[in-house]
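Both lines are retained for reference:
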Amino acid sequence: MSNTAKGFINTVPGASGRFASSFSINKILYNASGSFATSVPEFYCSNAKLSYDDVGDLTSTRSFSGRVGETDITLTFDIGPTITGKLNLPINPPSTVSGSAVWTQN
């Protein structure tokens, strides 16, 4: 991945299994909101990093797989972009995750 952007990713309070994330690229916000196929404890990562090759990869609905660890998160999308970061607070137990997310921009 040749490009990176800083942002956040967190679970959506009160919406079990859902998450929201946002990353700033050239003053445009790229947002991925989606759901995990399995239950994941609530988490917040305010220092997430998005790695990607082309902003064209940050569109439509994309599947992902990854891990929400005790202290970190890694989500890898089916066409290459990854979201990584250190969680603000540890969660337990760690989970292997999969699901899908919709990319939007504003």
